[in-house]
Design brief:
This protein is α/β, with parallel strands linked by helices and 170 residues long. 55% of the residues lie in helices and 13% in strands. The chain binds shikimate-3-phosphate. The site of shikimate-3-phosphate has 9 residues, from loops.
């Protein structure tokens, strides 16, 4: 299988779908957040607090540049990776870019109990998620080569759809 790059808003299911792709299509997983946490020896929230968002975004861009030699890999990306225009090109050099798209309510139910997302801490409510999502929509659309809707589907169904759509594109 060609490399698959999963993008989408926080909590849309990228990590879970990546794990399912790993078992279903025998792919290796790289989770950009996890890789950055491992290298920095800190949680994402602590990286933001200690060094700021710009520093974190630089780590993301540098990591994407490293991943281009990987094969049969699913790259699960942090939700804000699409914000930098240069990253879009880097994502496409890695593989086919698949957007997992969900409604603000779906996202809210998935993220509400988690406090490791600095951009949502103190803003854990549907209107805020909707606002951030609306701001980001053009960035996700600019980056996506394939889109899979997540609402009202199991993540297993979403995974099968990702495989189907990626194979359709060859
Ligand atoms: C972010 C999403 C997070 C993480 C960081 C910033 C964002 O990843 O990279 O908190 O800007 O949307 P997930 O999408 O895996 O939650």
């Amino acid at each position: 299988m060609n490399n698959i790059v999963l993008i989408g808003f926080m909590g849309c299911g990228k990590s879970t779908v990546a794990k399912m792709l790993k078992s279903k299509a025998q792919m290796t997983i790289i989770d950009t957040d996890k890789e950055i946490m491992k290298r920095e020896g800190m949680k994402i929230a602590d990286i933001f607090a200690k060094h700021g968002e710009e520093y974190f975004r630089n780590l993301e861009t540098n990591l994407l540049r490293e991943l281009q030699t990987y094969e049969n890999t699913v790259v699960s990306c942090g939700g804000g990776i699409v914000l930098r225009e240069e990253n879009v090109e880097e994502l496409r050099k890695i593989g086919i870019v698949v957007l997992l798209s969900a409604s603000a309510i779906t996202i809210y139910h998935r993220v509400k109990k988690n406090n490791n997302r600095p951009l949502l801490n103190g803003n854990m409510n549907v209107p805020y998620i909707q606002k951030l999502m609306d701001e980001r929509k053009p960035y996700y659309q600019r980056a996506a080569q394939v889109t899979v809707e997540v609402d009202h589907k199991t993540l297993k169904q979403v995974t099968s759809e990702v495989i189907e759509k990626v194979q359709e594109r060859g």
